[in-house]
Amino acid sequence: MPFTSSVAPSGQVALTHMGVIRVAGEDAVTFLQGQLTQDVAQLGLSEARLAAFCNAKGRMQASFVVFKRSPDEILMVCSRDILPTTLKRLSMFVMRAKAKLSDASAEFILHGLTGEAVASQGGNSSRVWSKTDTNGASLVVLPPSAGSARALWCAPVGTPPPSLGVIELAQWQWLSVHSGVAMITQAIFETFVPQMLNYESVGGVDFKKGCYPGQEIVARSQFRGTLKRRAYIVHAEAPLHVGQEVFHSTDAEQPCGLVASAAPAPSGGFDAIVSIQTAAAIDGRLTAVSVNGPALALLPLPYPLLEDL
Question: May I ask the CATH architecture of the domain 228-300?
Answer without folding.
Answer: Beta Barrel (2.40)
